[in-house]
Design a protein that fits this description.
This protein is mainly α. Helix content is 69%, strand content 1%.
Amino acid sequence: MTSFTTDFTDALTRAADLIEALLDELLAPTARRGEIARPSRLVAAMRHATLGGGKRLRPFLAVETARMLGAEGVAAMRAGAAIELLHCYSLVHDDLPAMDDDDMRRGRSTVHRAYDEATAILAGDALQTLAFEVLADPATHPDAEVRAELVLGLARAAGVAGMAGGQMLDLAAEGRYGVTSSQETQIRQIDALKTGAIIAFAVEAGAIIARADHAVRSDLLRYGRAIGQAFQIADDLLDREGSAEAVGKRTGKDQEHGKATLIELLGPEAARRECARLVDEALAGLQPFGDRADVLRQAARFTVARRS
């Protein structure tokens, strides 16, 4: 069983607590400056989707990357919160009957079950747009160029060539639109877009805030892409082998829906070896940073050792 240093677990817990507090503030039920009103049912659904659950790994990666590069502060926290808002939007929509049709997420009812489908769609929409509002706000960073680069990066990671595109390919691989294909290269592409793009951007966001140069960002992109794909394989293994109680959501869905995963194609043991290879790839990307990157090294190992 993998063990983690106190530095890592403390940093992960501290970041999660700070992000939770910031998300609570951003999702306050009262209207903020410039707003006419916040419909109470919509805000309640957004809060249900976002607060009180999750490891906050994506914002942690943004915060920790920025800290490693000497840019610890409010900008990284707000960027991390924006990434988490967008991630939570994706979960709300992913759980809808038209997608994965899930009843449970993070150990409680999914938004469309706790409220209704229309409210869940609007809650997801509102979480997504709030993410970009946070990044574009001067409160996130005084430099408009940095804010614009953050908005551009998140949009690319979330859109047609990122998460949304990956989800489309994933649905197609289930056979919804005709002939299915389970080639390894196509499965890797799905994983890289659907899950990996946002995780890789979380790392990149920390580098953007720190105004890192091209060489630094290239090394960190190698790290981020590798752990993004490792995260998805680990998630698929949890779906195959974990219990709903431990994972916090229904398991066994991939086999039930005929999803294209490396576990189904290669088998669990080969998938674990691929996870290990991807962690090694991620660690190689951190070599230039020496001891400064120790917490990020632990984060890479955490992506494949988690149990929920």
